[in-house]
Amino acid sequence: MHTLIVVENNSVPFDRRVWYEATTLRDEGWQVSVICPGDKKAPTNGRMPEYLDGIAIYRFHVEFAQGGIVGFLKEYLTAFFAIARLSRRVWREKRFEIIHISNPPDIFFPIGLLYHFLGAKYIYDHHDLFPEMISERFKGKVGKIFFRLACWLEILTYKSADLVITTNESFREIAVKRGKIPEEKIAVVRNGPRIKAFYPVEPIPALKKGFPYMVCFVGIMGEFDGTMELAEIVRHVVLDLGRKDILFTLIGDGSMREAIKDKLYAWGLEKYVDLPGLIKDDILLRSYMSTADVLVSPEPLTLMNKLSTFIKIGEYMAMGKPIVAFDLKETRNTAQEACIYIQNGQINEFGKAISILMADENKRNKMGKVGRKRVEEQLCWEEQQKNLLLAYQSVIGTKGRKNIHYASSI
Question: Which residues contact 388 (CB under 8 A, 6 or more apart)?
Fold first, then answer.
């Protein structure tokens, strides 16, 4: 059996969810192909596919939009035609039984429908709330028009798919209420780290650069990822609370990375901040996280953030570290007692929570152990992959979905 997995907004293996899905299916005996973006050094058509751990990867070139309608239209149209072209190539090389398309954006349903009519099954993997993402980026009358268009595209995507996979119960509820999708057509497969691969390692004191304590952020530094809020938090902790004993290590990249760097340096805080950039080496990444005393998730309250399950939260918990985050519904559902929750916008309270945790090693250890245990027993990919395999079975099985019982999501 052959499945084609498509993702537009990230590449593999760095998109952990997509890579976990691909390797899980490979281990079950599936032939797996992936279409995803690459950079300027990505293989040309003549050198594709690239094989990584037995998975065939077809990469395409796309310039990700930083803002503006023209930029997004250019990105999405380029991606659509590239994915259409590459999917045709994969189909001609070896027909696939399933085409598994992840969002955002919700524009690829015509491709899914085409292969559905040719005999393949179409799975829609709902990663992000595309209409809410559009409404956050575009305001005013134009924003309202694009939001309605995005809702229409979302519904068409829901209706076109043979099965919808969602990342949490909030997304499942949206699929039922907004998409009018019957519950038996939905499978919940949460984001969770692979516990056998993502575990704490020995701390490296040198990463603290001589500071007694370290706070670590890992993630995308984008417009809606709490980047500027994080800068304000660092300023408050160092300048207002006088905590000159804490190093803030901000790991990641994105459109706002230079902006946060400029702001922190303008405040004279360069001594208290380390910006190592995007770390692709998992061992080094886990070394940073294992060395840190507190891990932070500063995403602000937006409708999309409120209902999204951030991959970083599960990974933070897997490292056995306490978390400080703004109080978002799905963050709370995931982390529970492993996190201190701060009311949205309360920068000073966020900083205060960090300072309090630094003074209470027992509390840090207790919160970390609670988080690690919850990941091991419920949230890890080893548990979540069971629902992915059931979803695939429901699509290709001769008995149909009515005989498939998904484990209750947490």
Answer: 21, 24, 25, 165, 187, 189
Radius of gyration of the CA atoms of the chain, in A: 21
Q: Which residues of the chain have pLDDT under 50?
A: 42-45, 398-410
Express each pLDDT in 296-312 by its tens digit.
999 999 989 999 999 99
State how beta strands 186-188 and 163-166 pair.
parallel
Same domain (yes/no): 259, 329: yes
pLDDT in tens, 341-384: 999 999 999 999 999 999 999 999 999 999 999 999 999 999 99
Residue 409 lies in a domain: no
Token code pair at residue 356: 């309090």
Number of structural domains (the chain) is 2
- What confidence score (pLDDT) does residue 158 get? 97
Q: What is the DSSP letter of 43?
A: P
Same domain assignment for residues 186 and 250: no
Q: Do 271 and 364 fall within a single domain?
A: yes
Which amino acid is present at 75? E
CA–CA dist 153, 200 (Å, integer): 41
Which residues are paired to 36 by β-bridges?
59
- Domain hosting 95: range is 2-192+382-403
